[in-house]
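Cross-check.
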Amino acid sequence: MEFGLMFEMPQEMGLIAIAVRQTQGKGRGPNAWLSPVGCALSTVLVSIPLRSQLGQRIPFVQHLMSLAAVEAVRSIPEYQDINLRVKWPNDIYYSDLMKIGGVLVNSTLMGETFYILIGCGFNVTNSNPTICINDLVTEYNKQHNAALKPLRADYLIARTVTVLETLIHTFQDKGPNGVLPLYYKYWIHSGQQVRLGSAEGPKVSIVGLDDSGFLQVHQEGGEVVTVHPDGNSFDMLRNLILPKRR
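Predicted model, tokenized:
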């Protein structure tokens, strides 16, 4: 999305870019973000006043977007048991087993307003390279003798943006406590024990998110430590929180 354009848009006007395939996308740090046909791919522009609940807690934006993508599916009647989850800090998962999508946020502060580009992509109809939402629907139908219909990428993009708008309004009105119960309902880390830094690092228990949207972990000695997403990543396979490679 063209950065210059977003500063010319009236704040009350929405702007979204949608792609069918992505070959030159940018992920976190040096990572590339490549997406085949079948993914729901979008970048949406959101304007957030600096002196607002969310404007003072911008790290929550990525959590709201990943939550919106999960809720967009699980709030559809009869699809509530499709096992999509959120993984800290910005991933969408099938259970705690496999990544199915992710979120990338870029923000620019101009005067008293944050202009935020939220990129989101998740697999809807493409079974490769990992698994997709319609694979989960098919498996659910087999296990429960159900007849849920496959979902479309464009439909889920529309639902995700609508849910995101609702979550932002709720956050601006009630702060973190307005959205955290739903976030914790879907996240995969409740009670999880991990190690910080390396396989020999201190063992900690995940507590939740603090008031700024950062991860809180409880060390064995009793101290609660805050972990920032910009400097760390979560390695699910090794159960580690690692410094992010630059």
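The chain has two domains: 15-186, 192-243. Residues 15-186 form a domain with the BirA Bifunctional Protein; domain 2 fold (CATH 3.30.930.10). Passed to J.P. for a second look.
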